[in-house]
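fwd from M.: "can u put these together and see what the complex looks like"

so here's what she sent:
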Amino acid sequence: MQLSHYLWNEDLKEMLESNKESLKLEAMKRIVGLIAKGKNASELFPAVVKNVANKNIELKKLVYVYLVRYAEEQQDLALLSISTFQRALKDPNQFIRASALRVLSSIRVPIIVPIMMVAIKEAAADLSPYVRKTSAHAIQKLYSLDPDQKEQLIEVIEKLLKDKSTLVAGSVVMAFEDVCPDRIDLIHKNYRKLCNLLVDVEEWGQVVIISMLTRYARTQFVSPWKEGAMFDENNDKAFYESDSEEKKDPTEDKPYIMDPDHRLLLRNTKPLLQSRNTAVVMSVAQLYWHLAPKHEVSAVTKSLVRLLRSHREVQYIVLQNIATMSIQRKGMFEPSMKSFYVRSTDATHIKTLKLEILTNLANEANISTILREFQTYVKSQDKAFAAATIQAIGRCATNISEVADTCLNGLVLLLSNRDETVVAESVVVIKKLLQTQPTQHSEIIKHMAKLFDNITVPMARASILWLMGEYCEKVPKIAPDVLRKMAKSFTVEEDIVKLQIVNLAAKLYLTNSKQTKLLTQYILNLGKYDQNYDIRDRTRFIRQLIVPSEKSGALNKYARRILLAPKPAPLLESAFKDRDRYQLGTLSHSLNTKASGYQELPDWPAVAPDQSVRNVEIIEPVKEWAPSLGKAKKPKSGDKFYSDEEDEKEEEGSDSSGSEDSSSSSSSGSSEESGSESEEESSGTSEKTSSDSGKSSTGSEGSSSDSVQNKKKKKTKKVVKKKSKPAAADSDSDENGNGPVASSSSSSAESSSGSETDSEGDSDSDSPAAQKKKNNVKSKPKVEVKSKKEVSLLDLDDFSPAPQSNTPKSAVLSSSLLSDLEGLSLSNVSPTIQVTTPSFGPMKTHELLHHMTGKGLSAKYHFPRQPCLYQPSMVGVQVILTNSSDHTLEEIHVGERNPASLNIHCFNTIERLEPEASVTVSMGIDFSDSTQAANFQLCTKEDGFSVSIQPAVGELLMPSTMTEQDFSKEQGKLLGMNEISETITMATANTSSQAISKQVLSVANLGVVSSSQSNFHRFAGRTVSSGDLVLVSLEVKESCSALLTINTEKSVMASMLLRDLKQALAQA
Amino acid sequence: MSTKRNFIDLQRHLKDRTRGAFSAAHTLLPYWHRVTHQWQLESAAEMIHSLFLINHTGDIFLEKHWKSVISRGVCDYFLEVKEKAVEPENVPPVLQTPHHYLISIYRDKLFFLSVIQTEVPPLFVIEFLHRVADTFQDYFGECSESIIKDNVVTVYELLEEMLDNGFPLATESNILKEMIKPPTILRSVVNTLTVLLFFPGSSNVGDKLPTGQLSNIPWRRAAVKYTNNEAYFDVIEEIDAILDKSGMTVFAEIQGVIEACTRLSGMPDLTLSFMNPRLLDDVSFHPCVRFKRWESERVLSFIPPDGNFTLMTYHVSSQNLVAIPVYVKQNISFFETGSCGRLDITIGPKQTMGKMVEGLMVTVHMPKAVLSVNLTASQGNYTYDLATKVLVWDIGKLNPQKPPNLRGTLSVQSGAPRPEENPALDIKLKIQQLAISGLKVNRLDMYGEKYKPFKGVKYMTKAGKFQVRT
């Protein structure tokens, strides 16, 4: 055996050292097989570790498996592999960086702690969210390896918590929970972001985040369970009305107003009840249980009951939790009572739990149904379960006095059951019941006395004896006779029975000493010499107590009062009675003991801590990790957005709001709105949607979105008009996405996504009316247009009608789809360098088709600067089609294209376009990184018009973010003919860094690279089609001259871009 | 070569659990010791520490540790409980040992036992373990001891990807399949080829790595291409019911699931709508479904994963009366005198909506005292397993003209008391082309891609937990 083992290893070593990959692979596979079986393969370490740098991925993976398993034992040798990982940490491929970090951090060798620390810090700042996720995992590994690193690790956690990627969120919260769960202060600033991202986080992360947020909410909000929580609904509305945090309802008589952040959490977790992941559903359920106002908790019932269809193990945990919940809140589960009916095929522990719940749910109304059900269970072949049922009947009897007699009679009937355990259990339960209501039950006691000879279960015998003794005065004839029988069999009884015999004897001696004196003495004598010391002790004690003698003076007098004192009836309680001390859904709850690492759920604070800690302040443009452009653009944003999108008539409003309100963050008006306009509200939602999304997507720009809100308020009426066309919501939010309001326009779906879906959710859930309209509208565009007109007629007094004013609407799905999709997106990343935020999208609209040439059909287009969802290589184009003629245009679609190979994603055919109506549709065009125009035909039912879209070179780019170092590194790779530069003269107005950014971004869809030098400005992007890097750097020399450098492989684009930039910067 | 194989066999047959654990523990004692110490100090860290796969006889045939090694000895607590349990199903899923917590699931006659060190939501672990089992099922077609042993390397690679430091990493089948190819006959050939083609230089490794994990839609593989584009949806409804002795419905409800199989190129965006969505009471979705659209419009809008997946599950609102497709007349009785009993079961059609009832099967768990049965079936066959006391009557198609009947005598162990309770009957049945709730798919539309896919919807009704008390 030993020999073959040795040979075996030799063989493997040989294979590992061979030159053939296949042999090595084969060897590694066998070794993994050994590890899996738990065999020791540590001797092969030197041979295996040599292959760590092998190029073959599969082999490499297997080596990693081995390394992680044995590195701890072979620390010195393991160190040989470290340099390989260090090198891989710098690899351009994010997956390689991530996997290197994964393995490196899994090697539990204390000596490499510093290396791990450095690697984690670097990875935490990596551009790839996947690598950052890995670094969050590594934090925990390092922490368990060396807890002394805690402080440094907390810093990394703090940084990662700010991350806006859904990929990272779950993992970093996990690390937070592990390393510093008490540092709740780190969460404040990220609270809203986490709430908003939640829906899009992967399911495992959701569980962790939800449980952390439960704890957070318990420390930060006041209890919603007090009187007056009814007003909550009201407040709820107010919250939807506007997103501003500070808003308070002016009417102070309301005793409780839920913190909007509290509401936010409840609202954003609710959809997750529909998750397929049972752990997610359970965690939302526990969140509602611990945080929601009482009347809202029942929202989780259906979902929990649904989980009962899942695997046996899931049922077990869910039933446990329902059992705890059903004690406090019968009403929650009563409607689904039948779901807890037991099937004979259920496992025993499932049956018992269901029984427990049924018992908890029993009340006057349903008790007869439940008892009928119980009758079936008592007959179960599963005797443990039958016994549990009897206990349950006993509990029902004590809890519901109406049925006490019925239950008792039923139990007495069971006494004649053939099964011993059933009888025994019945006796025990009857005993308890009789204690609670000892009046005229002598019949039952007599009956039991008669059965006594047939009952052999000790506990049951003991119970009967106790009953005899306790109520001996009610059965004066029978009790002494029973004692007589027991005296005979005393020696063969079980201990527990013997104790009760002694008890019975003592009680009878006190009440009926004439008949029982001798018997008692006999029994006491037997007890005195019993083998069990408990019995000997008890006997001695009783003798002293009841038999008067010289020594025992004082106590003797009280013997009667001691032994025959009225005893409190035992409470028949649920085993889950006090489980609620543990947070639901936890391991501790399941085990009913405190598991290690369990964190108590704090009680609500009496007074809520400062709410403003959760406000996210504006972050300065330069230092932002994913740079946003800060204040400069805000005033502009207001203008831009509205002037372009809507019409002149709206400009007044936007102007004023843009300038005045941009920085005012609190809007007192919003709450009025909430209260008063229930009708408007529904319509207002879609608008709000956009403001919501704008806000959260930037994450930092509270004020800009506020301005939008304020403004919205001003335009309430107009909004109403718009409202009738819910489709507007979609296009609105889109544009908002692109427009300057949301700095995140095109690329960083990760941040905008969560919020957008979310805000859509609001509108959906709030305003069923609006939804319905929306539905109608979608299905029948015709009707919609009409209704719009009607409404606008009502409101027209104030505004001059403008033909295309009324919000472009999409009659087809495409644009709503777009926003939907963004909701889905996880994180939008290009292979190595993340494509991100800020485009300062100047929404230049270009004419596509004039209404004169188009026989009434006019079209305009602009580049929304959002990643095209149809194909990543396409540039998204939004086309606004307007019918300026006096007749309905039908079947508007894209016809032939030129060149024929042109790759266009067309919009769906628009069946009808009413006069005066307009729609916005999205298209995707693959320009192949050239500014050659895309020519195609725009057709109606009757005609076709040749049109062409010519992109500016700047629109063919997608912004990327990167650090300054990466920028320099990449720039270093793109020298020589890939670099062009020119000294340019700038207009004086453009010398400030904000102005430069603004101008550059208006020309090209680039991302700002934060810069440490104030005279250096860097911008990065990729070409949409081929993904080539385009790096723009601008070195400001003196007052007005600057060196503009563009590095890219696309030299044609570079020169065109240079020209455009030069022109833009020269202009004031 | 043969010596090696012999060696493996030897090892396998030794069943020497302690030996392996011992030698391992011995070699690594110094470090091991230190690490153990740290756990006790810190006790924090990962969610799932180790996984053991145990067969129904109690042999540990695979172990995987995501951190330090935990000795197999920890399973003894579990095995002890398992020994005591009459049925493997009765082992509680959560157990406590002095230093660890054990959370286990029982699937396909295997125990998946995970070792936990600290507080963690138990459902989190249970759900994950089931995902692991699902993944094995998905990869190997079944989830059995022999198939896991045969594919131990793939299993290990999967486990490595699914969990990082005890926290789930990649659990989507589409992503896993991009990283780890399911075993095929051609696999080994392809392997060598890929090695040659892809790894002369290191730069190409990225091609083999999962892009799906980073995409906006993590459940879908990138760059899917099919020559035949097709999307099939199976609406499967299960009737859960308890009928009492007299045939009255004690409890009945309908649970439905929509299983989908989509083989569509590119990035199709599908919309599925129902004629009568109001029927649906409680729903849960695959993550691909846009919940907002459902909330507002009651349509399912989604970009599907590639291949098979469960699109949604639903519960039909309890207001609607549930049609029970069959009636069951039964009479099972045991006589006080003479060690025998009588059994007589007839099944006939009740509310079948004019469809054929197929796959009819009745299972009876007889009381322990029943030694043997002597029955005649008017249709189909019956079997009685003497060891488990399970009577199975496989009927097949239900003939409405001539309701099948099973009758005869049961012989009971002499001297044993008359069984207290009559055994319940579990009914299985299938009805094709019918969703018993009346749910109908209205239409399926596809956006985002040009081609016309082939679309199909199939309905089926099955008996779920359908029990008749006697």
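replying to her w this: Chain B touches chain A through 135 residues (CB under 8 Å).
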